[in-house]
Amino acid sequence: MPRETTTLAVFPRRLKQARLRSGLTQEQLGIQAGIDEFSASARVNQYEKGKHTPAIQTSQRLARALLVPTGFLYEEDDLIASLLAIAGRLSKEKKKTLLASAELIAQE
């Protein structure tokens, strides 16, 4: 399967996963991401159903509202996506520590 097709199928799943984990409704997420309040719920619903794919700027705003890195929304591998979500919540210093640890593990 071409990566583009797979990536398009991943985005709706990751978006919904992050939204549910955040406890936001589709409308709340849309509004926090800067989508007009009258269409916020419908647009987020369409993104989660895969009917429409947001522009990258919208994806970035959605990710910020969900407190996840934008890459999380596009990552196909569940383990890497989980690592991204965790890393996104860390302070800069803790991210550096995590990176150093990951580099040590990769050398083994």
From TrEMBL:
Residues 15-73 form the HTH cro/C1-type domain. CDD domains: HTH_XRE (cd00093). It comes from the Bacteria. This is HTH cro/C1-type domain-containing protein. It comes from Paraburkholderia gardini.
